[in-house]
Amino acid sequence: MSLKFKNSKRIEGLDRNVWIEFTKLAADPSVVNLGQGLPDISPPSYVKEELSKVALIDSLNQYTRGFVSASGP
Q1: DSSP letter for each residue of the chain
Q2: Residue 21: its H or E element
Q3: Which pTM value belongs to this model?
């Protein structure tokens, strides 16, 4: 005898979010996923210089919103 489960309406749409979209895109072997891993080379000096400037701006230190689709909010 098999049991049939019905998902709660609260989880509808959870299968559609930006991270799932990024994972699908990164699965392509021709894509280099820069969001994971530990690079073994230093970034160029200009990248480090610009990062140090941006790090001093107080309004730019927030996490991104979660569960936003790739097509918009």
Answers
A1: --------GGGTTTT-SHHHHHHHHHTSTT---TTSS--SSPPPHHHHHHHHHHHT-GGG--PPPSS-BTTB-
A2: helix 18-26
A3: 0.36
Q: Cβ atoms within 10 A of the Cβ of 18, count?
A: 15
Whole-angstrom distance, CA of residue 54 vs CA of residue 62: 12
Question: What Cα–Cα distance (Å) separates residue 13 from each residue in 2, 20, 48, 71?
Answer: 26, 12, 38, 14
Q: 1: which 2 tokens?
A: 């005898």
User: What tens digit of pLDDT does each residue of 41-70 get?
Assistant: 888 999 999 999 988 988 877 776 666 555
**Residue 72 in 3-state DSSP?**
strand
Closest to 19 measured CA to CA, from 31, 7, 32, 36 = 36
